[in-house]
């Protein structure tokens, strides 16, 4: 089966400046693919090229094995970073309008809109104007506008920025639900914790270049595990003498141990169990945040 | 095509339902109502004065012969609007008193003059001036008296009457000029003139109004960033033309409303009379003029509105829009003024040239068709040029639109737009 979205060696230049330099990725059906990067890394440009707003200077984008054509627009949904909606038009009017522009019948569009408003538990917004809503709710409406026509490929640019934790959770669960229904989602953010929760595979862009790519777990395994969290009831002494331990930080309820060899972990645990009762023991894998900073920081130098 | 309809519908309904639209339409309808009623109102105010005759003291003094003749003339013309009161001598005090007592409104006296020459007449009143109607009446009366006075019986009454008859000039048009005449009737009819004038004003007004609406709509779509979603849903060309057509329908709706308001007002009994005096007969209106008018109207609108859309797409904020649409406003003003100033001489060279230049041709050609004489091929050529330029400017505007809607920040220069167009590969 052909992949819903395959990007092959994408290249884009704005005048002198290269905006995207050789990005390749593919999004499977029912997958959320994370596109990470700092500001100006080329995330939005990549997404715009996927959407056909701007044309790439090099490389190819294929949608279910086909080249871009205007018919494909019906199968795509887009939530731009700056939520675009008419401020003075009623929610129902504009979302139905956008849905109809993407090939839905007026009746289907209305049904779909009402479903989504109920899904977000805000059916009363149907007759409200966008400017009357709070920023977070405007964003929800923007999200509905992106998914109202049930797109096969959904592109979310910083979908969760500016939302309170409750709304982030609501939106997150909605995105997961869409994924489980088979939507391919290309998702950009600079909030690593969202990526770790939602995505299997990611690409980190830095200054137009893809610097790191692949499955999150595999990526993490490539990086050494350097920290152990140890919580005990009583005191444990002598950890720093174990081979492979670099330093020991005393914490409120235990210790944070920096190691340079994972083999030391077993000995630490043994020692702790002999001396006291262990409440918590964890070999921490590096967070994406750390990896990101490490990667981006290194290439900065 | 389906999408075009959706865009048109959305543009139309969203604009029509806004308060601003409803209010401006009502205000304009009121203004139109007042305008239509102006002839009646004028009649109402001047009508009162018409019933009252101006009483003029006529001082015989040394020029008793002239005074007598004038009095005879006045007696023979009961509708002249003035009545003469005889005074033998010029006694300023008595006369002033009579004016104060409203026995007379003013007095007329003749200066001394050598024998055989007609003396100067002086009218003295409170205001120190004569109103137009009275002056005309007195002047024509005195003219006749003068003729009688100078000829002194050497001419017969019939000859004097013939002399007093004003010279008449009848204008006639050459007939059968190889089919140049679409109507066959005299062209410079009141109805055509009024129609052409109304069309020009309407053309200019709706183009400016809807054009500015289009531009500001595009800009606000850009600044609210909905453009990014729109552009992924519908092609820019469809989007642009949908907006233009939608706005055009709004313009037509407004014109329709104004037209209905005018029609209702004209139909009112008091106005029907006032208008019948203006000698305008709707039946005189040339059907071909109406048709040409509509064609040029629609095409001219299309041309201007594509430009407005293109300009709107280059600006990121509504505040910058006024400055950006300035050049288009200037062009449309120029076309409007060429039209209105040349309406009295529809065959002038400037109008001929202007009728082949795309931006001025809708107005200029309309005047030439309606009021001047113009060959079929000239109309055809002008139409062709207009159509081609709509195509060219429409194409160009669509490109600018496509590029402009993704450019944010300050208003781009032409060079930047061209660069961006290359960068976007459009």
Automatic annotation (TrEMBL), chain A:
PROSITE patterns reported in the protein's UniProt record: ABC_TRANSPORTER_1, ABC_TRANSPORTER_2
Superkingdom as given in the UniProt entry: Bacteria
Coiled coil feature spans: none
Key words of the record: ATP-binding, Nucleotide-binding, Transport
UniProt name for this protein: ATP-binding cassette domain-containing protein
Keyword ATP-binding (UniProt): yes
Domain ABC transporter: 5-232
Pfam families reported for this sequence: ABC_tran (PF00005), DrrA1-3_C (PF13732)
Family stated for the protein in its record: Belongs to the ABC transporter superfamily.
InterPro entries associated with the record: AAA+_ATPase (IPR003593), ABC_transporter-like_ATP-bd (IPR003439), ABC_transporter-like_CS (IPR017871), ABC_transporter_ATP-binding (IPR050763), DrrA1/2-like_C (IPR025302), P-loop_NTPase (IPR027417)
Species of origin: Paenibacillus zeisoli
GO molecular function: ATP binding; ATP hydrolysis activity
Source lineage: Bacteria, Bacillati, Bacillota, Bacilli, Bacillales
SMART domains from the UniProt entry: AAA
Stored Gene3D superfamilies: P-loop containing nucleotide triphosphate hydrolases
From TrEMBL, chain B:
Pfam family for this entry, one: ABC2_membrane_3
Domain ABC-2 type transporter transmembrane: 19-398
Lineage start: Bacteria, Bacillati, Bacillota, Bacilli, Bacillales
Alphabetical list of InterPro entries matching this protein: ABC-2_transporter_component (IPR051449), ABC2_TM (IPR013525)
Species, as recorded: Paenibacillus zeisoli
Localization annotation: Cell membrane
Topology in the lipid bilayer: Multi-pass membrane protein
TM segment ranges: 20-42, 194-215, 244-268, 289-315, 321-341, 353-371, 383-401
Keyword vocabulary terms for this entry: Cell membrane, Membrane, Transmembrane, Transmembrane helix
One Gene Ontology term, aspect cellular component: plasma membrane
Location, primary (coarse class): membrane
Protein name: ABC transporter permease
GO MF terms held by the record: ABC-type transporter activity
């Amino acid at each position: 089966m052909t992949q819903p979205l395959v990007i092959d060696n994408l290249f884009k230049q704005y005048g002198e400046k290269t905006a995207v330099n050789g990005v390749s990725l593919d999004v499977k059906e029912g997958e959320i693919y994370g596109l990470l990067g700092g500001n100006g890394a080329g995330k939005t440009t990549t997404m715009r090229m996927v959407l056909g707003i701007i044309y790439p200077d090099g490389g190819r984008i294929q949608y279910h094995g086909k080249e871009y054509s205007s018919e494909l627009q019906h199968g795509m949904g887009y939530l731009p970073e700056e939520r675009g909606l008419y401020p003075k038009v009623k929610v129902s009017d504009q979302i139905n309008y956008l849905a109809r522009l993407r090939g839905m019948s007026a009746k289907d569009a209305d049904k779909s809109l009402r479903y989504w408003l109920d899904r977000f538990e805000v059916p009363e917004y149907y007759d409200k104007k966008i400017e009357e809503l709070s920023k977070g709710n405007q964003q929800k409406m923007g999200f509905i506008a992106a998914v109202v026509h049930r797109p096969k490929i959904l592109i979310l640019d910083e979908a969760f920025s500016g939302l309170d934790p409750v709304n982030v959770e609501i939106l997150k669960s909605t995105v997961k639900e869409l994924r489980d229904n088979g939507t391919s989602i290309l998702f950009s953010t600079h909030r690593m914790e969202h990526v770790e929760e939602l995505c299997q595979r990611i690409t980190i862009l830095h200054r137009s270049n893809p610097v790191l790519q692949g499955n999150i777990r595999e990526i993490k395994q490539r990086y050494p595990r350097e920290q152990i969290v140890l919580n005990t009831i009583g005191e444990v002494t002598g950890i720093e003498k174990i081979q492979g331990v670099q330093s020991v930080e005393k914490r409120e309820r235990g210790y944070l141990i920096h190691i340079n060899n994972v083999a030391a972990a077993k000995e630490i645990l043994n020692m702790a169990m002999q001396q006291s009762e262990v409440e918590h023991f964890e070999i921490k894998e590096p967070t994406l945040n750390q990896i990101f900073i490490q990667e981006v920081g290194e290439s900065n130098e | 095509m389906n999408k075009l309809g959706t865009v048109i519908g959305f543009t139309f309904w969203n604009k029509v339902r806004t308060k601003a639209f409803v209010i401006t339409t009502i205000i304009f309808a009121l203004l139109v109502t007042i305008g239509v009623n102006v002839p009646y109102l004028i009649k109402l105010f001047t009508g009162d004065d018409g019933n009252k005759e101006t009483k003029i003291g006529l001082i015989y003094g040394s020029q008793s012969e002239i005074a007598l003749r004038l009095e005879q003339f006045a007696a023979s013309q009961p509708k002249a609007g003035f009545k003469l009161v005889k005074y033998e001598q010029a006694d300023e005090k008595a006369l002033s008193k009579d004016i104060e007592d409203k026995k007379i409104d003013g007095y007329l006296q003749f200066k001394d003059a050598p024998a055989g020459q007609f003396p100067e007449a002086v009218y003295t009143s409170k205001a120190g001036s004569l109103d137009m109607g009275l002056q005309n009446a007195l002047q024509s009366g005195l003219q006749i008296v003068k003729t009688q006075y100078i000829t002194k019986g050497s001419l017969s009454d019939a000859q004097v009457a013939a002399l007093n008859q004003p010279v008449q000039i009848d204008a006639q048009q050459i007939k059968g000029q190889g089919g140049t005449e679409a109507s066959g009737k005299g062209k410079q009819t009141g109805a055509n003139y009024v129609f052409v004038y109304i069309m020009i004003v309407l053309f200019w007004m709706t183009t400016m109004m809807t054009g500015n609406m289009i531009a500001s709509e595009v800009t606000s779509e850009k600044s609210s960033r909905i453009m990014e979603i729109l552009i992924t849903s519908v092609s820019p060309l469809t989007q642009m033309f949908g907006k233009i057509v939608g706005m055009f329908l709004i313009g037509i709706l407004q014109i329709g409303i104004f037209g209905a308001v005018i029609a209702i007002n004209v139909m009112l009994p008091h106005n029907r009379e006032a208008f019948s005096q203006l000698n305008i007969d709707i039946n005189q209106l040339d059907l071909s003029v109406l048709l040409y008018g509509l064609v040029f109207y629609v095409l001219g609108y299309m041309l201007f509105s594509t430009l407005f859309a293109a300009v709107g797409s280059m600006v990121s904020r509504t505040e910058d829009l006024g400055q950006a649409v300035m050049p288009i406003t200037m062009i449309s003003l120029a076309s409007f003024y060429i039209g209105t100033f040349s309406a009295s001489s529809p065959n002038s060279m400037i109008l001929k040239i202007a009728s082949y230049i795309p931006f001025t041709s809708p107005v200029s050609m309309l005047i030439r068709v309606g009021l001047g004489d113009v060959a079929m091929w000239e109309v055809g050529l002008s139409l062709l040029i207009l159509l081609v330029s709509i195509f060219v400017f429409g194409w160009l505007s669509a490109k600018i639109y496509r590029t402009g809607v993704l450019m944010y920040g300050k208003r781009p220069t032409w060079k930047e737009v061209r660069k961006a167009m290359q960068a976007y590969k459009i």
